[in-house]
Amino acid sequence: MSTPLAESTAPRTSGTPAAPRPRKEQSQRLKAWATRAPLLPALVFLIVVTQLPFAATLVISLFDWNAFSPDNRHFTGLSNYSAVATDPALRESVLTTAVLTAAVVVTSVVLGLLLALLLDRSFKGRGLVRTMLITPFLLVPVAAALMWKHLLYNPEYGLLNGTLAAVAGLFGADAPQPEWISTMPLMAVEAALVWQWTPFMMLILLAGLQSRPHDTIEAARLDGAGPWQIFRYLTLPHLRRYLELGVLLGSIYIVQNFDAVFTMTKGSLGTANLPYTVYQTFYEGHEYGQASAAGVIVVIGSIVIATFALRVVLSLFREEVSRG
Amino acid sequence: MSSLTAAPVSAGPTGDRVLRRARRRNTALGLLAWVVGLVFVAPALWMVLTSFHSEPDAATNPPSLGAPLTFASYREFFAGRGGASPWPPLINSLWASLASTLLVLVLALPAAYALSIRRVRKWTDVMFFFLSTKMLPVVAGLLPVFLFARNTGLLDNIWLLVILYTSMNLPIAVWMMQSFLADVPVAVIEAAQIDGARLPAILTRVIAPMAGPGIAATALICFIFSWNELLFARVLTGVVAQTAPVFLTSFVTSQGLFLAQLCAASVVISLPVLAAGFAAQDKLVQGLSLGAVK
Fold first, then answer.
1. Where are the transmembrane segments (chain A) (predicted)?
2. Which of B200, B42, B142 is nearest to A49 (CA)?
């Protein structure tokens, strides 16, 4: 244990123990296990708690299993999947999930980029503005969703209609008082989520902006490049991977969103996304087999996104490692 | 665009004019940033203000900005006038968040050590295995966990949440702490070794002080995620182990004119997260991007 650095500076290749004597080989193996030991508790814990339940979900998804008739439980092969694929409500929730995720991610990335550009300069109170901007992200998601539903969207006394009425009142007119959630349910959920996720995107992109190579930009400006050219040909290419990272991490978190849908609409009015539908199918509908099949579909969707996400993280990570 | 902050320094009247124009534009953009910041924080500020209004003042149209302030809603909330006391759920949340954060640190610190300072073979593969578990949607494993809990009598037990929150945060913590520990310069550790320091001394005297702030930020972020969690808590707890977010969702249905009290409840329940978040502000990006962005 007294030479912990041998490996960090020069990672061993797989065939290193070329020593002929078994004694030495044994001590090598012992040393390798000593290195691995600190890793094992975390690894075992994570496999047991996250991988086993998922394996169980896979198995359950192959059974016809309703909690109200447990004696009827039997193997049905892939019929839950065909039931899920042909159920119009479930198909709609797949579409809802895609629309919700895409709308929230794209809007919050664009807004986040604009905010990051605004904040990437020195002005009075910059720290305070930054703090104000990240506040939405630091409210408990349930509290934020309730706030939007009751405090802002409420048609009678919500802040949105209240402001409309107050502004129209200045001109002696009657303002329209829309019922936000019932007329545009998905938009209402999306707006609340955009408000919460824009700060996240801003933070990532701001970090990207601040890691730009300043000498290159200085050189470009001395060569007569304008601000737009610098943005288009230097800043944007540099930000590309930060944008990708924001999009992918945002997608992973928002595909899984449950809090906002559950709190604001209870999945009604066409806002039920897949996580909510899975929750409803098993918690209220007690259709264990079908819920599991839907869960597996969510996983497949996530794996597609995650594969891209991992690639982006990996490229940033490699750069970090090679620099360090 | 940050170029404007370092405007070219040149003598003469034209340079002066360029400088002045750049400065004016910078002021205008700074002002815009202020306006946008205020717009973003406005709903949250409105919630805080409403929590200090009386119930009739809270539900008016147009909104009553200047209504007299009162602590009534907070008193009502803590007294549990809505039918249930907020203390058990708050204590449950605190317990679940603190215990799981502690467990995360105990598991993640040695793992991060084996992935940064004394590296195992194929350490990047291990890192990506950790990350990939984070991408598995929570709902996918929910049903088996629920069935397991029901059959073993762990339903409505706060320890089940502690275990689940630990697994939820462990990958993030491993990634974050790996990047913080890898920042400790190899030369410093080598120097300590040459001076005859043993492993415990190196851990406590060399690594801990340098990686300390990062480890603290990791803990705060894990705390936030556990405190915020709704789905597991909603499905796996009932009366006894109910957490604050679940309490908040059930709070609404049991009330009549409730707006001010709802705001007070939301403010109280959000306060620990706000405090932890602002404390970890500098390292927040690194945590949320799983250490990919520094």
1. 39-63, 98-119, 131-151, 187-209, 291-314
2. B142
How far is residue A182's CA from residue A184's CA, in Å, rounded to a whole number?
Answer: 6
Residue A280 belongs to domain with CATH number: 1.10.3720.10
Give the residue among A240, A22, A227 at the shortest CA–CA distance from B4.
A227
For A104, the enclosing helix (H) or strand (E) is: helix A88-119
Tell me, yes or no, whether A19 lies in a domain: no
Which residue of A35, A45, A198 is in closest CB contact with B114? A35
Alpha-carbon distances of A313 from A241, A242, B114, rounded to whole Å: 9, 10, 20
Domain span holding position A295: 89-323
pLDDT digits (tens, 9 = 90+) for A178-219: 888 888 888 999 999 999 999 989 988 988 888 888 888 888
In chain A, the number of structural domains is: 1
Backbone angles phi, psi at A291, to 5 degrees: -60, -40
What tokens does A234 get? 């230097």
What global pTM score does this model have? 0.83
Q: Chain B: nearest CA to A211, how far in angstroms?
A: 9
Flag if B34 and A129 touch (Cβ within 8 Å).
yes
User: Which phi and psi (to 5°) does residue A18 adopt?
Assistant: -90, 0
Q: Domains of chain B, with CATH numbers? A: 1-40 (no CATH), 85-288 (1.10.3720.10)
Is ipTM over 0.95?
no
